[in-house]
Amino acid sequence: MNVWLYPFLIALLVFTPLSHANEPDALLEITVSADTSISIARFGNSGQRVLWLPSEQGLDSSKAYPLAQRMAAQGMEIWLADLHASYFIIPGRTSLDDIPAAAIADLIQQSLPDAPQQLFLLTSGRGAALGLNGLQHWQNAHPTDKRFGGAVLLHPNLIAGIPEPGKPDEWLPIATQTQTLLFVVQPEKSGRRWYLGELLDTLETGGSRVYATLIKGAGDGYLTRPERSAAEIKQADAFPVLLRHALNILSKTEGKTSTVTAQTPLPKPSTPSAEAQASVPKTGLQPFPGEKRAPELRLTATDGNTYDLKDYRGKVVLLNFWATWCPPCVEEIPSLGRLQQRFSPDDFSVVSVDIGETAMDVEAF
Q: Residue 68 burial by CB count (10 A; 0-12/13-18/19+): exposed, middle or buried?
């Protein structure tokens, strides 16, 4: 794996409040394929242009607009696309699957600045699959256009479907077909952090040149998530500077090219893409295909007592891995308590294991 890791030490900047500081400088409507208009909020009017596509969770303007304004203050021109409102779709894991990649290709083409300026793509989560598929369509149609400078991917989710226990991860086809400059920003407190090495290797097999950095103390969605820790707010405040550095690195990388050399043929418009089919989650409980007996697990609790999983044999055990920085994990704790109360501890036990935190962190929580 040939990956350039860039740890960043970024000083926080204090910005003087401006009148209407969080309002866009302009609202645009860009018509793409199938006569669909995509709404764009533009922040700034000069510098490196960034086309920002939202994740599958949609666009919260109350959080995204102030962030876009801070990006613009760093000398970038931000084009923030509201895909969910434009296509009348509800935010959710598969919400972006039905947006045509050709429409994103049209959006990229119409967002390009005049030379020598370049366009950069910014997206996160499942938005990475949509953005990279759209980029592939655009590259096939414009193989010699040098005005695309690369993409910045925030905790990208390019795994096909839902990972199944005991089986290797399957990547969406676009993960091995992308040929561009990429800068991956991965929060440290994220489940996807453990897939990072494999993700970077997979992206490079398609011909992409990849840079990456870890964000200390932050989880997925740390830029705009409603509930955030002090560390996440600090990192979100520093993100505009990080983005500016990332774009400078991508723009100065030698030997870059947008020429397509060997891409998979594009699907017909009437055929559902492989990505869309693979992303449909399986419903209900799924049988574990591997070894039926659980691996050994022996841990010391905050009370000093040692607990061994083998001592629970003969009863049903719900083994829950969690962390204080994981909002869904915290939200489900009361329901797990209620579930335990419905059954005798002689027959059923909920065992919760905190991952990667100190006893002091857990006791404080």
A: buried
DSSP letter, residue 34: G
- Give the count of alpha carbons within 13 A of 130, CB side only: 27
User: For residues 69 and 126, what is the distance between their CA atoms, to the nearest angstrom?
Assistant: 24
Q: Which two tokens stand for residue 72?
A: 């613009």
Would you call 265 helix, strand, or coil by DSSP?
coil
The CA distance from 113 to 91, in Å, is 30
Q: Quote the pLDDT of residue 285.
A: 63
pLDDT in tens, 71-126: 999 999 999 999 999 999 999 888 999 899 999 999 999 999 988 889 999 999 99
3-state DSSP assignment of residue 284: coil
Query: What's the sign of the alpha-carbon dihedral 281, 285, 290, 294?
Result: positive
Closest CA to 97 of 136, 69, 125: 125
Residue 67 and residue 233: Cα distance in Å, rounded? 11
CA 122, CA 156: separation in Å to the nearest integer? Answer: 11
Q: For residue 263, what pLDDT is reported?
A: 34
Locus of tokens 């199944």? 164
Residues 6 or more apart whose CB falls under 8 angstroms from that of 183 comprise: 150, 151, 152, 153, 210, 211, 212, 213, 246, 249, 250
Amino acid 160: pLDDT = 87
Q: Do the Cβ atoms of 54 and 81 come closer than 8 Å?
A: yes
Task: Flag residues of the chain having pLDDT under 50.
Answer: 7-20, 256-281
What distance lies between CA 80 and its chain's CA centroid?
A: 16
Q: How would DSSP label each residue in 140-163?
A: HH-TT---EEEEEEEEE--B-S--
In degrees, rounded to 5, the angle at the alpha carbon of residue 303 between the alpha carbons of residues 301 and 308 is: 35
- Helix pair angle (61-73, 230-252), 10° resolution: 50
Residues β-bridged to residue 171: 159
Tokens for 329, please give them. 């994990």
The closest of 104, 154, 160, 162 to 132, measured between CA atoms, is: 104
Give residue-wise pLDDT tens across range 142-180.
999 999 999 999 999 998 877 665 667 789 999 999 999
**pLDDT at residue 70, as a whole number:** 94
